[in-house]
Backbone:
């Protein structure tokens, strides 16, 4: 190798090493995705809250559940009363889970839920409705509590939070515990203040022998806002729960890591795991001793392939590989809106209350289901970053509408 080639090779290696070192030492961008898991230390995780639970509930047993809500409530100790905490950006319980949770509270237990949406079944049973006011920019909102035993303090939320509040509640069984507002004053809004600037975001709903504590601002319970000085709001909000054993739900989370490998169940069962290993060892021995070909290979006639199916699989695999959930959601929303314009002859340029009523009357679908779907579409269109859970929720709503 001549001198010139050595110089070029040395420069190339120096540049390559520089790039590698730069990638290693450069700070990672802050992850603002919603997670709400007990192990995530990102801004919208719940690591701090989970580790502060022993201080908030001294002397009480705290259980972490990483399986479905139904299984957790079935396997719990029914001889003693307890409280169940669910915190996530969206809470979508199926009918079976909802009935189990309702029975749990009716028997004298309490449930604390912080979410911007409580699911159709639970909301219908408790006779509540939630409304979110979206804006072009992230406005600072304030939350505060109504209990006179707590300090008269407003807690600002200035990132990742919209004005989500209860638009309708069952006044016979519901007590308002806190409000959310756009008011910029330092003192809490009084009962005579402008109602357009505030709405109830924290309520207590009596159900049977127990209570539901519902909060529409789950972001207030995350690491970011607890470190920003809002830890007292969290402590006061959770203080309504009695001194009972506590269940922390770590399953209904946007940031939960889902292992969808078909081998997961097999490797988690001792008998199946050893059967799998023995089967693989036997197959290997068979291949070693029977590898010699005993007859002429019979030619395989390949059937005609359905190229449309392969194309769909390829496109689906591409989206799954790149994890571009935002682009996928945009395409699904645009395709759905085009169907509305083509099939029901509706103008989708502005989605509002009239659009929901017209679509419900022309499609024959319940108005509440249509509102939920359009509200989710508006929410996702205004959301900058999307998760896999957003795609699943949107797809579920769209399939439910098309049935």
Residues:
């Amino acid at each position: 190798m001549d001198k010139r080639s050595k110089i070029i090779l040395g420069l190339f290696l120096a540049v390559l090493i520089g790039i590698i070192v730069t990638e290693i030492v450069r700070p990672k961008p802050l992850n603002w995705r919603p997670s709400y898991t007990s192990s995530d230390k990102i801004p919208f995780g719940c690591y701090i809250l989970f580790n502060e639970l022993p201080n908030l509930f001294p002397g009480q047993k705290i259980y972490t559940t990483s399986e479905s809500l139904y299984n957790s409530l079935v396997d719990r100790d029914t001889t003693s009363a307890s409280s169940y905490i669910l915190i996530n950006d969206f809470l979508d319980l199926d009918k079976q889970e909802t009935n189990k949770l309702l029975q749990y509270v009716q028997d004298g237990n309490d449930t604390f839920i912080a979410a911007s949406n409580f699911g159709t079944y639970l909301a219908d049973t408790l006779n509540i409705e939630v409304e979110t006011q979206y804006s072009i920019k992230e406005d600072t909102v304030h939350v505060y509590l109504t209990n006179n035993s707590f300090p008269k303090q407003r807690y600002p939320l200035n990132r990742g939070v919209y004005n989500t509040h209860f638009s309708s509640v069952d006044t016979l069984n519901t007590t308002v515990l806190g409000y959310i507002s756009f008011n910029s004053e330092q003192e809490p809004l009084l009962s005579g203040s402008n109602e357009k600037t505030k709405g109830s975001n924290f309520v207590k709903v009596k159900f049977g022998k127990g209570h539901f504590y519902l909060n529409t601002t789950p972001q207030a319970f995350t690491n970011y806002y607890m470190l920003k000085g809002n830890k007292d709001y969290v402590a006061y909000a959770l203080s309504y729960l009695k001194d009972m054993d506590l269940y922390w739900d770590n399953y209904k989370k946007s940031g939960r890591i889902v292992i969808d490998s078909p081998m997961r169940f097999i490797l988690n069962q001792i008998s199946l795991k050893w059967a799998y290993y023995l089967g693989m060892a036997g197959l290997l021995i068979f291949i070693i001793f029977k590898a010699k070909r005993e007859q002429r290979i019979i030619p395989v006639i390949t059937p005609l392939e359905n190229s449309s199916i392969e194309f769909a699989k390829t496109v689906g695999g591409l989206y799954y590989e790149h994890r571009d959930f935002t682009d996928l959601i945009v395409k699904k929303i645009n395709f759905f809106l085009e169907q509305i314009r083509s099939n029901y002859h509706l103008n989708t340029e502005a989605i509002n209350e009239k659009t929901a009523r017209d679509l419900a009357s022309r499609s024959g679908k319940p108005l509440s289901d249509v509102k939920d779907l359009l509200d989710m579409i508006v929410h996702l269109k205004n959301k900058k970053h999307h998760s896999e859970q957003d795609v699943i929720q949107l797809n579920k709503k769209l399939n439910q509408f098309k049935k």
Summary: Residues 323-402 form one domain. The chain has two domains: 30-258, 323-402. The radius of gyration is 27 Å. Confidence is low (pLDDT under 50) at residues 184-195.
